[in-house]
């Protein structure tokens, strides 16, 4: 019984009010976009873009949208 009450209290505190928006999260990513390893870097970039779309379509991280800022490692 106490565990159920504690879980309910934790869940109630974890929700974000409808009017409040968390600021977007920008995650810096360094990948080999040019040069000999560009093939793997391009594939990883596409995977991260798909992951970003999936996460944002499903509510983000704690209500905040994410964005992968992909830079070349050159």
What does this structure look like?
The chain is of the alpha+beta class. Helices cover 45% and strands 19% of the residues. The protein contains 2 helices and 2 strands. It has a two-stranded parallel ribbon with strand order 1-2. α2 links the parallel β1 and β2. The chain is elongated, with a radius of gyration of 18 Å. The chain starts with a helix and ends with a strand.
Summarize the SSE layout with pairings:
Layout (H helix, E strand, L loop, with lengths): L1 H13 L10 E7 L6 H20 L8 E7 L2
Parallel strand pairs: 1-2
* Low-pLDDT sequence parts: 1-7
Number of E-state strands = 2
Query: Helix proportion of residues, in percent?
Result: 40-55%
- Alpha-beta classification: alpha+beta
From the N-terminal CA to the C-terminal CA, the straight-line distance is 57 Å
Query: What's the Cα radius of gyration?
Result: 18 Å
What is the makeup of the main sheet? 2 strands, parallel
3D shape? elongated
Mean pLDDT: 82
**Strands in their spatial order, largest beta sheet:** 1-2
Q: How many individual helices?
A: 2
Estimated share of beta-strand residues: 15-25%
Note the run of SSEs as H and E: HEHE
Index terms:
74 residues, alpha+beta, two-stranded parallel ribbon
Concise description?
With 74 residues, the chain is an alpha+beta fold.
């Amino acid at each position: 019984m106490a565990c159920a009450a504690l879980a309910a209290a934790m869940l109630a505190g974890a929700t974000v009010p409808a009017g409040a928006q968390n600021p977007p999260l920008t995650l810096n990513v360094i990948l080999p976009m040019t040069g000999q390893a560009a093939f793997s870097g391009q594939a990883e970039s596409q995977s991260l873009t798909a992951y970003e779309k999936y996460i944002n379509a499903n509510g983000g991280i704690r209500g905040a949208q994410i964005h992968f800022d992909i830079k070349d490692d050159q």
